[in-house]
Amino acid sequence: MSAAGQKRLPSKARALVAWDVLELSDATLNKLAVRLGRDASTLNSAAKRFDRRCYNEPEFKEKIER
């Protein structure tokens, strides 16, 4: 049971970094994808989900901003 939670943390971190690249950086998702060994479209989807969650869950956004 704990393994599932441990697997989620890296994916959440990737989503945050992908969102950061899209919103706050001059870097590209393609370059990030190469560095992380992931597909750029997967990172884009994760960033969009992250952004949606920040919009829909104020407490989540507040936690991220700390």
Structure commentary:
By secondary structure, the protein is mainly α. The protein has one domain (2-65). The chain is built from four helices and no strands. Helix 2 crosses helix 3 (40-56). The longest helix has 23 residues, at 2-24.
Topology, pairings included?
Layout: H1 2-24, H2 29-36, H3 40-56, H4 58-65
Helix pairs in contact: 1-3, 2-3, 3-4
Low-confidence stretches: none
| Major β-sheet profile | none
Total count of helical runs of at least 4 residues: 4
Taking all Cα atoms into account, the compactness measure Rg is 12 Å
Choose one word for the global shape.
Answer: globular
**Structure summary, number of beta strands:** 0
**Percentage of β-strand residues:** under 5%
**Average of the residue pLDDT scores:** 89
> Can you write the helix and strand succession as a string?
HHHH
Relative helix content: over 70%
Distance between the termini: 28 Å
Number of domains: 1
The structure class reads mainly alpha
